[in-house]
């Protein structure tokens, strides 16, 4: 596949494809929208991966961004909310069905799949980069799974990834949507290598020349700085190890009454948890409790059940309105407090099968 290839038209569709030597290169190219993923971009990327898997010339696949500001700020959830609210909920669900299929495809891709990630990497951006064999972080990386702020939940396979992070750091990231930088993302194992961005063109050329991916990345990688949150990791574990949402809130309240960096950290996380969707916080907590015992495919199936039901609710639309449309940052959640959420309503979101369950294909199918 030459420049353009699938989805010829390049920037008009927000994504470009190229085979350069032995490398299949996917370039996210929707800079004004911070590379937010449209349904068309997802479909084209799925088609490109199928093509690269079958192409004997392609030895390594690389996905990166044309923008210095962002790798990908997530999926185009504003458009999905508009679709669903206009009576096209099945079209919105189709977006998530294909997105989760793409997330799974990157995990089972039969050749080295290398993500070069710098700038913003939120939500759906992690979905197309966080499950591949090699995950390269640039120095300006800003990682977050901020979906609880818009009445959604950390999806795109976060149910599988976040519970497997060290200690209880995944629960912290899921419940708060906190943004962390490259040093912490590396320390927590979200990325496999840190390569300075100025060396990325040489790295891509090495892949194009046919150099083996793992050895090449080891050659280019440098040691990242010490993690910013490192001194707080033990306290984060202690706080977020609580077996219930009320226990976590109580631990944050206690820590916030102190002084110093821990108190500042706890106060900020407490304010966040009380500001975002209460239902989403409970969903995220349930994800962390379940995900450690499930493989990625099983997690994605359950996420599709949950997102299908979230689309039938209230908070997602209200969160998108408050954060992305009106931008007044004053969402009116239903229920409006953590204490008003009935925990018994959360498990059925995950457990009740759908009439049209997510079915994940393989590259051999």
What attributes characterize this protein structure?
365 residues, alpha/beta, 2-enoyl-CoA Hydratase, Chain A, domain 1, six-stranded mixed beta sheet, four-stranded mixed beta sheet, disordered N terminus, 3-hydroxyisobutyryl-CoA hydrolase
Detailed description of the structure:
It is an enzyme of class 3 (hydrolase). It is a single chain. The chain contains 16 helices and ten strands. The chain has a six-stranded mixed β-sheet, with helices on both faces. The protein has a four-stranded mixed β-sheet with strand order 4-6-8-9. It is of the alpha/beta class. It has a domain at 10-144 and 189-220: 2-enoyl-CoA Hydratase, Chain A, domain 1 (Alpha-Beta Complex). The two termini are 22 Å apart. The protein has helices at 39-54, 77-85, 89-108, 124-127, 158-161, 169-176, 182-187, 200-208, 213-220, 233-240, 245-256, 261-275, 278-291, 296-310, 315-325, 347-351, and strands at residues 15-20, 23-28, 60-65, 70-72, 113-117, 120-122, 134-137, 142-144, 180-181, 193-194. It is 45% helix and 11% strand. A hairpin with a 2-residue loop joins strand 1 (15-20) and strand 2.
